[in-house]
UniProtKB/TrEMBL annotation:
It comes from the Bacteria. GO terms for molecular function: fatty acyl-CoA hydrolase activity. Residues 150-279 form the Acyl-CoA thioesterase 2 C-terminal domain. GO terms for cellular component: cytosol. Keywords: Hydrolase. One of its GO terms (biological process) is acyl-CoA metabolic process. This is Acyl-CoA thioesterase II. InterPro entries: Acyl-CoA_hotdog, Acyl_CoA_thio, HotDog_dom_sf, TesB_ACOT8-like_N, TesB_C. Belongs to the C/M/P thioester hydrolase family. Residues 31-107 form the Acyl-CoA thioesterase-like N-terminal HotDog domain. Pfam families: 4HBT_3, Acyl_CoA_thio.
């Protein structure tokens, strides 16, 4: 039986059909709709397989809702292979329609000027309950129809710093943080910068949009708000390993026009390794006729 981590790398490791054409498989995490992070991670793998350099940035748009019952084709276009940077464009298609589009830039590692903001201080992950333990504590608050989806184990181990109950949301600060790592070490045959980056990108979408929901005391689980990721940007600053603990610190700066702007920073061993920006839909269904 495959481990949770093996299932994750198999999910993200898209199959190469031609030089610039790839096919991705699906998994049902939250019903019939694809998780946006899956598209980000798979697109990053597809683009990475066309170059020998690690990615340093990805800018993406979610164009249509993806479905878990249809295969995904990833078309990669080689826009440039320069001395310093390589650029790829990736379109994800289902049923002949583009559902997701991303630009990915790659660069060789090099030395230069270095500066970073200070890492925030939180309890260590060993001092915190796991996401699954916290879910069990609030299980009775979940509607019976949501029990199986709510308790489904995510592909990444998560220890929240500030636990919250999505079925009883209260207004709170936008700051939110989690520690994460894979359940097992990455298999040797896929232990590359490409896979570590793709798993971080996959996870980066998991709870980020909740940051802009927090001050309003609404949640995706209550039916009061329609929420979805609209775009996603991730910058890779340093190499890191997702099979060791990382801290993901998130916040939001504004919500307006039924959209929220969310920011995330990933840290490992005191080093800022990734930065994430995402605008999300947050339509208040209570105000609709």
């Amino acid at each position: 039986m495959r481990s949770i981590t093996q299932k994750l790398v198999d999910l993200l490791n898209v199959q190469q059909l031609d030089d610039y054409l790839f096919q991705g498989q699906n998994t049902r995490l939250f019903g019939s709709h694809l998780m946006g992070g899956q598209l980000v991670g798979q697109a990053l793998i597809a683009a990475s397989k066309t170059t020998d350099r690690p990615a340093h940035s990805l800018h993406a748009y979610f164009i249509r809702s993806g479905r878990t019952d249809l295969p995904i084709l990833f078309q990669v276009e080689n826009l440039r292979d320069g001395k310093s940077f390589a650029t790829r464009q990736v379109h994800a298609l289902q049923d002949g329609q583009i559902i997701f589009s991303a630009m990915v830039s790659f660069a060789y590692l090099e030395e230069g000027l270095n500066y970073q903001v200070e890492q925030p201080h939180y309890p260590s992950p060993d001092e915190l309950e796991s996401e699954q333990q916290l879910k069990q504590m609030i299980f009775d608050d979940a509607p019976e129809s949501m029990h199986s989806i709510f308790m489904r184990q995510f592909h990444v181990k998560i220890h929240p710093v500030q636990p919250f109950n999505p079925f009883k949301p209260i207004p709170s600060e936008t700051n939110y943080a989690e520690y994460f790592q894979t359940f097992e070490t990455i298999p040797d045959e896929l232990n590359s910068s490409m896979m570590h980056q793709a798993i971080a990108a996959y996870y980066s979408d998991y709870n980020l949009l909740t940051a802009s929901l927090r001050p309003h005391g609404v949640s995706y689980a209550t039916g009061d708000v329609r929420s979805a990721s609209l775009d996603h940007t991730i910058y890779f600053h340093h190499e890191f390993k997702v099979d060791e603990w990382l801290l993901y610190d998130m916040n939001a700066t504004i919500s307006s026009q039924s959209r929220g702007l969310n920011f995330g920073r990933m840290w490992q061993d005191g080093k800022l390794v990734c930065s994430v920006i995402q605008e999300s839909l947050m339509r208040d269904l209570r105000s609709l006729p």
